[in-house]
Write a structure and sequence with these properties.
The protein is built from 8 helices and 8 strands. By secondary structure, the protein is of the alpha/beta class. The strands form 3 sheets. It has a 4-stranded parallel sheet with strand order 4-3-7-8, with helices on both faces. It has a two-stranded antiparallel ribbon with strand order 1-2. The chain has a two-stranded antiparallel ribbon with strand order 5-6. Helix 3 packs across helix 6. The relative contact order is 0.20.
Length: 210
């Protein structure tokens, strides 16, 4: 019955910051909103496990703002690759079978809100020269499924986490020609995101980051 206080809420208000030292990400550019520690860790776990249903609305706001901030900051190589793509697809990291059965698809929910924010942020890019023009279509799609490894990363060492997610997921739908932004709730070694990026690239997608 305790409301989320402004001080804890403000911990998720920062702009997406680059995450370094992710050996498993295979060179993928990854941004995060906050270190996974302290009150933020408690918030994320309560949201993931459904013990604080009021956090759904909070995380939706966080996702929309993160997507908008990411889109507004798109530049360099990512911006040059967008015009030649069919659109921007926001893809969540795959959830395990147990989480799917429970309906706790937090990464997919987050991807939906990031896509909404990204669409808003990219609108401001519409006046750019034709060679830099952004796509009109932004969508989210839960197209990845796990294969191999156990369902949980909790309690595993960094090496154990890498081995547990070493097998790239299956891509269920055609993504060739799409630019892709990956979304996950927590990043540790980056192996999950790296495997997702590899699977999507192998099927013709242009993965911009996570």
């Amino acid at each position: 019955e305790t409301a989320l206080c402004p001080q804890c809420r403000s911990l998720l208000d920062g702009p997406p910051a680059p995450v370094g030292h992710l050996g498993g990400a295979q060179g993928l550019e990854v941004h995060a909103l906050s270190p996974y520690a302290g009150a933020v860790r408690a918030l994320v776990l309560a949201w993931k496990h459904g013990t604080r249903e009021d956090l759904r609305a909070v995380m939706a706001q966080v996702g929309r703002r993160a997507g908008q901030d990411w889109a507004a900051g798109v530049g360099g190589e990512a911006l040059r690759r967008l015009p030649g793509c069919r659109g921007l697809l926001v893809v969540p990291a795959p959830s395990g079978r147990t989480r799917r059965l429970r309906g706790r698809l937090v990464a997919a929910d987050l991807a939906d809100t990031v896509a909404t924010g990204a669409a808003t942020g990219l609108v401001g890019q519409g006046a750019a020269p034709a060679r830099h023009r952004v796509p009109d279509l932004v969508a989210s799609a839960d197209v990845l499924r796990r294969r191999g490894g156990s369902g949980h990363q909790t309690g595993l060492s960094a090496r154990g986490r890498r081995l547990n997610r070493a097998v790239a997921p299956v891509v269920l739908s055609p993504v060739s020609g799409w630019a892709v932004l990956l979304v996950d709730d927590v990043v540790t070694t980056g192996t999950t995101l790296g495997g997702c990026a590899r699977a999507l690239r192998d099927t013709g997608a242009c993965v911009l980051g996570a």
